[in-house]
Amino acid sequence: MIRDARYWLDALRDLDMKRPVRIMNVCGGHERAISVAGLRGALPGNIELVPGPGCPVCICPEEDVFEAIQLALNEDIILVAFGDMLRVPVNVPRRDPRSLEQARAAGADIRPIASPTDAVRIAHDNPSRKVVFFAAGFETTTAPVAAMLAEGVPDNLMVLLSARLTWPAVAMLLDSESPGFDGLIAPGHVSTVMGAEEWQFVVDKHGIPAAVAGFRADTLLAAMYSVMRQLKSGHIFLDNCYPEVVQPGGNLLARTQLDTVMLVGDANWRGVGVIPNSGFSLRPEFAAHDARLAFPSYADDSRKRVGEMPPGCDCAKVVLGKIYPNECRLYGRACTPRKPIGPCMVSDEGACRIWWSAGHRDNRWEGKHAKRAAG
User: Fold this and answer.
1) How crowded is residue 367: how many other Cβ atoms within 10 Å of its Cβ?
2) Is 75 helix (H, G, I), strand (E, B) or coil?
3) If you average pLDDT over residues 64-92, what whole number do you get?
4) How would you write 80-128 as a 3-class SS string?
5) Strand 210-213 to 238-240 pairing
6) How far apart are CA 297 and CA 158, in angstroms?
7) What's the confidence (pLDDT) of residue 372?
8) What per-residue confidence (pLDDT) applies to 306?
9) 186: left (phi over 0), alpha (psi -120 to 50) or beta
10) What is the model's pLDDT at position 296?
């Protein structure tokens, strides 16, 4: 029996739960699907959907973006990166390039790519030059990078890795005094690679219902229904509402390639700080393709501090689900997709960019403070 979005909406209403429930949707793709489909406006009023830390562009450390910019400006290389990364801003004086896009305008050879195969092709086409792939992303995009290296790449291709695992950020929130949500919708694409079991700790350790969802309205609503039904019944478990793609154990080949190529260790998240066991790095066997070993370090240790967002930008609070995008001080005022101040307004997976594209133009922070001033 095919159950569409209308079926799940009716099922949610029939649960007739009165108490407020906050459900975190981790994935930026989920947030985009929710906003495009207008699900927030269709849900029962007691259900609050909270965007979570599911945008790799948003949490890519400021010092990594800075290093990529300096490497492209100061070395005779071709630097390639996924398209969204080119517009991520860093905190530098106005006279200096503050993004890879501006560094390209200043003369650096920087090219957007769509996949690791593009990086390999560019390296083959330019055998006399070093090509550096600035590879930022979560498990879904890091697995193809691992596969690329495992299968063999040209000698002139290097990787500047800034890759993260998704679940440790959720674990950090749940281990805090105020996690801010009652249920979790886990990302379908990450679970496709790593397996739904990666989210079992949410249930076992914290007693919070979790459901894996895909990217259509029906599977998202099915996951919401599962979470709400679990809360009402008190029977808490991990549900897979995306079984057509997410299989037990995930993608074994992709996981094997990740294990073969990558190590996992503590890593910095922009605006958040260091999260234990949340970052990938290259194994010593692949040192010949590690850009950080191949070139002088352009990293600036003084940049490694919590709060690496531009002045006034509340992107870190948005990433952690502490505020909604339009509660940021700069949202829609100084910060828009045309002129982004913070990384959450850059990427199609950034909550601020998604909300702006969906038509949310009100700045709640401004409204709240105007009321306080009037009072």
Assistant:
1) 12
2) coil
3) 94
4) EEEHHHHHCCCCCCCCCCCCHHHHHHCCCCEEEECCHHHHHHHHHHCCC
5) parallel
6) 14
7) 47
8) 43
9) beta
10) 80
In this prediction, what percent of the chain has a pLDDT beyond 70? 95
* Cα–Cα dist 282/265, whole Å: 11
Length of the chain: 375
Task: Kindly report, residue by residue over 303-356, the tens digit of the pLDDT.
Answer: 555 447 888 899 999 999 999 999 999 999 999 999 999 999 999 899 999 999
Report the alpha-carbon distance of residue 225 to residue 209 in Å, rounded. Answer: 11
> Which domains does the chain carry?
57-165+250-303 (3.40.50.11740)
**Conformation bin of residue 131: beta by default, left when phi > 0, alpha when psi is -120 to 50:** beta
Helix (H) or strand (E) holding 267: strand 262-269
| CA angle centred on 156, ends 151 and 162, rounded to 5° | 70
CA trace torsion 258, 184, 237, 176 (10° rounding): 90
The CA distance from 223 to 211, in Å, is 5
